[in-house]
Design goal:
- With 348 residues, the chain is an alpha+beta fold.
- The protein has three domains: 1-124, Hypothetical protein af1432 (Orthogonal Bundle), CATH 1.10.3210; 127-226, Methane Monooxygenase Hydroxylase, Chain G, domain 1, CATH 1.20.58.1910; 233-347, Aspartate Aminotransferase, domain 1 (Alpha-Beta Complex).
- Helix content is 54%, strand content 10%.
- It has 13 helices and six strands.
- The protein has helices spanning 3-16, 23-38, 46-55, 60-65, 71-85, 90-102, 114-125, 129-142, 167-175, 185-223, 239-244, 288-297, 323-347; strands at 249-254, 259-264, 267-274, 280-285, 301-303, 312-316.
- The protein has a six-stranded antiparallel beta sheet.
- Strand 3 (267-274) and strand 4 form a beta hairpin.
- Helix 1 packs parallel to helix 3, helix 3 packs across helix 6 (90-102) and helix 5 (71-85) packs antiparallel against helix 6 (90-102).
- The protein is elongated and about 85 Å long.
- 30% of the residues are buried.
- The structure holds fe (ii) ion.
Amino acid sequence: MTRQQFEKLEKYMKSCMEKVRHDTEHIYRVLYTALEIAKFEKNVDKDILIASCLLHDIGKEHELKSSQIRHAKVGAKMARFFLVSNGWNRNKVEDIVHCIESHSHNSDVKPHSIEAKILYDSDKIDNIGAIGISKVLILQGKKDIPLYNLYPNGDFIEDRTDDKQSFIKTYLLHLKEIHKNMYTDYGKKLARERYHTTKIFYDKLLNELNHEYNTGKTELKKVFGEPITEQGKNNYKWLESYLLGKAGVYKDYNENWNWTRFLINKDMFAVLCKDLDGNDILNIKSSPEITNKLRRKYSEIKECSYLNKLHWNSIRLDGYIPESDMKKIIDISYDFQLSLFKDKYSKE
Ligand SMILES: [Fe+2]
């Protein structure tokens, strides 16, 4: 491809995207990522790749006018007409048309050429990582879509089936999933790296929000002199009997460590002890997914300093986790340990 041909394609692309001008920067990012991926693939036709990157979203304006129109389909037709009119080789034109037609995740045509696979991956990678998050926040900000919605009781809705839109819902439904659907090896690598950034941002966001809401609501109650019911360390006196009330659970005491351990068939799943600063804590075991969720939800829950951080959390017992939540946390932990025990028993 000559510089002149490139500039002609650029000019045409910009003329098609006047009403979605901000999207033209997306075009260049896709092009640059595609060229990076191409370095690790064999037999890539750069003419086909560059032309399809530049033209892949020229149908966007039409899609904005009607939701019935698919920009990949209409864009492919527009590209065919433009390229043939400008004397491009017929075979190359059809290869470019295939790339454009198959680049969208909701297209019925799936990418089969290497150029189409690279375009698909590059286009999706632009929706992951810091760039992906920024794009969603700008777009949702313009539409007044909030970061999160709340249940009537003031708790966060962290649920992909939430009726209303929010950044949290978009993350759970889309941002969290995009990196799983790449075609090229290098595209997979880039997507994984960017997903890491997306995940850190999301986890931090929830962490900050949960911390502020949990702490702030309790402080506000104090201002109004309202009793903090079901909360506070005095209400945790039931902990030991609650744990021992579960079928198959017994306790032992380790004098050296000053640990009261709660076990099922020699395996412990909860420990009452003190943290490094001498505060009363409950160390509790659960699946890695639950462990992380709990750390995000409650400021009193941190990773355990003494035990495997993947499975173990430490809960400060001078915090404000409601009694009902605390019981739920113990129930989940007990069920998890029981399932491990059953697994082990069935294998023996
Ligand atoms: Fe795109």
